[in-house]
Amino acid sequence: MKEEFAFLxxxxxxxxxxxxxxxxxxxxxxxxxxxxxxxxxxxxxxxxRARGLQVIILEPPFxxxxxxxxxxxxxxxxxxxAGGVTLSAATPRGRFYAISTLLQIxxxxxxxxxxxxxxxxxxxxxxxxxxxxxxxxxxxxxxLALRRLFLDLALLKFNWLLLPCDPAGGSAGEWKGLxxxxxxxxxxxxxxxxxxxxxxxxxxxxNMPPSPQRLPGGGAWIDFFLEQCRAARLHGGVTLAWSDxxxxxxxxIRRIPRDVIILNRGMRADRGNPFATAVQxxxxxxxxxxxxxxxxxxxxxxxxxxxxxARIDAACAAAAAAKLAGVLLLHGEDPEGSCLPQGAALVRxxxxxxxxxxxxxxxxxxxxxxxxxxxxDLYRVCSFLAQSENRLPYDHARYLFEDPLLAPCSRQGxxxxxxxxxxxxxxxxxxREIAPGGMSxxxxxxxxxxxxxxAKVDLSSRLAVLLAEADGSETLxxxxxxxxxxxxxxxxxxxxxxxxxxxxxxxGFALLGERFAHLGRVTASPxxxxxxxxxxxxxxxxxxxxxxxAGRFPS
Length: 555
Fold this sequence. Notes:
Number of domains: 3
Oligomer: single chain
Helix content: 40-55%
CATH topology of the largest domain: TIM Barrel
CATH superfamily of the largest domain: Glycosidases
Strand content: 5-15%
Structural class: alpha/beta
Largest sheet: 8 strands, mixed, barrel
Strand order of the largest sheet: 7-8-9-10-11-12-13-14
């Protein structure tokens, strides 16, 4: 692709420049199209004029009709002709992709008033491109948040969005109106219980069937599954189901209907390709599958970017090699996943580009997707965060939430390196100049988080020395009091950043604050300081071996 269109996201398959330019100071779209996609025109700041550069829609351009869920139904082309632009697409989803791409181009060149003449052809590398958010329940009450979520994913050309639903709680009714909104952006919205044996249910259907885990005893799970598949077909939808119950009962796999898509997390293999052993039983019976890599581990505020992209690349490669339906990105590993949406933005963007075109995009394209404008600093900051813990033995959640009095992780190796690492990261974030908004609030939170971790690791690593020093009590009291206030501030900012804060995470902040308050109290007198020091020495905690790196925040 020529450098002129490096700002596009995801990168299109092919662009050919014809030479010359077109005047775009006035662009005239069909009125029906403008009304249907008014939110797109608003997103890119493009106005529809009564006359000027004519935009024409041709359909269908690709011969025989194609199903909308297949690659043929998502192809589109944009061709600049004399005095106008022609968009070609066989389906509504393809037309949405064509219009969104053209609006990106018009928005980028709006300042100059002219764009280069070109021919663009595009089609997906992966047919099924999905995302699943474990904790999106609160968004049901916020139509604007859902609209932003749909549009952000649709502009990366995701075509499936699975939303969490608790059948026992009756929350499915809240999602009934989402299907039409999602389909305007080319996305198929589905409701999915996070339980291992659960099914996905079309959002348009309203009430979701009960999860197999909640069924009364006396019937085979496979009978329930087949009945729900038939019900989904009556509603005009397909059925999606986790692979877990079928891996436990392989004899059921041959009974899976051909229109079902199995969501395979590949958890049965610990080394090598994580999906290989789980994929094969379904492949033998020609069952459609979507592989499900996770963006973020439990208890973390932002993902390990390198590890997440490695999982996504492995899933894409395995899906392509085995000719599977596609890939579904899991925003976290379970319903208690606490990864902040802003923290996973770069990984999600890179994954969307990978799924659509198998190629990376540019820093300018990322900031235009995330913020709607060119903000080079944002890409640098997110890239820094994606690698921020690469050389540390433990992640930020472990250092933050371990008991400050025991703190086996904070005493491993040379704690000064951990302290210096997080202090440097906090200083780096404070120097970045990102315009106020959701991302700036997230970066402020991370700067505070890294400051707290640095101070906490430093205090925990020097605790025995401070307890033994005659004047160490004042230092301990001051630092414990500062950390208690800082942790409370972090908890407040965390709750402001997410629509549905993870209860376990909030509890972790509360427990941490209580431990700093306790530390401040026990250092108030020589007797309590000596008792604490003796307890630490007698239990050999100062030389304790740290627990495995993978773990959760306090439960």
